[in-house]
Amino acid sequence: ETLCLDLADWEAVEAAVGAAGPFELLVNNAAVAELQPFLEVTRSALQRSLDVNFGAVLHVSQIVARQMIAQGVPGAIVNVSSQASKRALRDHAVYCSTKSALDMLSKVMAMELGPHKIRVNTVNPTVVMTDMGRINWSDPQKSAAMINRIPLGKFAEVDDVVNSILFLLSDKSAMTTGSSLMVDGGFLVS
């Protein structure tokens, strides 16, 4: 069942997601990247990014985790973060900051939900060739500078991220919680 929701509308999300369960697995993948130089960041870009990249993850995870706890079943939550949570990028002040906040939220969630047998991890990809990735990295000069810092020499494809998420949702990662799985082609080692 597909739900199309404005994640900033907490009441609508609470009603729709609350009625959609029960859940055992959750992937939080919604994100926006409104790229602006630090000195030009607008309040609207900041608020939208906080609402989607951080607030929506917190809220949807609360709803789903409460259901998991009420059912008494183990579960797994994967939050899609970014390499930008670990490294500053020009014009990414808000994006880097919201993704860093998401990483820490995920660690706190892992600590507090672990006793309920709910694992929480992040996947932190490099640029992924989604519609958003193509829009923000279509400039060859900009993309070349980033690709040159990736030892594997390319951006990630959607399947690279999906396969990492599937691993973290599966029993093959049964002892993994509070971790960030870098899917960055080695960007952070360069």
TrEMBL record:
Signal peptide (UniProt feature, chain positions): none
UniProt keywords, alphabetically: NADP, Oxidoreductase
SUPFAM superfamilies: NAD(P)-binding Rossmann-fold domains
An example Gene Ontology molecular-function term: carbonyl reductase (NADPH) activity
Top-level division of the source organism's lineage: Eukaryota
GO BP terms, alphabetized: glucose metabolic process; xylulose metabolic process
Pfam families in UniProt: adh_short_C2
Quaternary data: Homotetramer.
Similarity field: Belongs to the short-chain dehydrogenases/reductases (SDR) family.
Name this protein carries in UniProt: DER reductase
Provenance organism: Pomatostomus ruficeps
Gene that this sequence comes from: Der
